[in-house]
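Deliverable D4.2, example record:
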Amino acid sequence: MKTNLFIVLAFVTLISTAQTTRKYSNEFMNIGVDAAALGMSNAVVSQTGDVNSGYWNPAGLINMEDNQIALMHSSYFANIANYNYAAFGMPLDDQSAVAVSLIRFGVDDILDTTQLIDDQGNINFDRVSTFSTADYGLTFSYSRKLLLKEGLSYGINAKVIRRIIGDFANSWGFGLDAGIQYHSQSDWKFGIMARDITTTYNSWSIDEGKFEQISGAIDGQNQELPETTEITIPKLQIGVSKKWIFHYDYSLEAAMNLNVRFAENNDIISTSFASINPALGFEFGYIDLVYLRGGVGNFQNELQIDNSEELTFQPTFGVGFKYKGIHIDYAFTDIGDQSAALYSNVFSLKLDFSIFR
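Output generated by the structure prediction step:
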């Protein structure tokens, strides 16, 4: 009988995500982009206004004055998983703008040991191969000003999701986001971002031959072929921010987000209808050149071993440097390991094409 060291459990676990109605499907699309935003604990829905708005709130794309590109890289699980992001945005005219972005979250060079032992029980390392599991999110964004009110804009995202588990299984998914922003003349900014408003639908294709090879590899552990569809339920983000200028050279921007999931979970505010998780962030700037950022979010009521609950949170820190059209940012997304969430050193680069003019 064929046995397996790791891939049986890994594959069965991964492929079991393809259930009919998963509440937390495509979670890689919720990690976030841009070290500047991550350094503020993602509290940027109301004030985002560059190429990265395609992810945070497409309504903010209208604030770009020139073409922009953005790149980001971070690693998780001791560099086992890599998270990469690239985006390009451009204004179409004074009233509208577009952007396209790509996210990849993947683990490469995973050992496939399903064929390690042949039918005669012999171990043959030449039969071991490698494969990758990767999630891709391609987003097309459009933003436009609303003429009925000065400072008001809206944006929409069309998302294509591609998920691959080696040769074992793959899926395609599609969904829509929508956002609005309002920037008042008193420097208060407001934003709403509705993610997966149509529910993002994923359809899986599973190699039944390979599934049969591994699903019965362990006596008594045969697995049924899982459902091949999954749905990502909508999420809502509500943000408000304000910026102050001191002595012309110094600035301070403070922001708050309320992240709403329509499901009951461990968020600090949780009901059977929805759960709400606040995030707070700030950015201190000096002569529009150097930035210091901080934030706190991801408040969770975590169940302890004695069945008590403990409130945890995720503090963040970041710094940024801007020179002409070049923006370099860094963020550390869980100071002191206060949260059970993923944390990493994040670096990002943004380039404004005005530097070439």
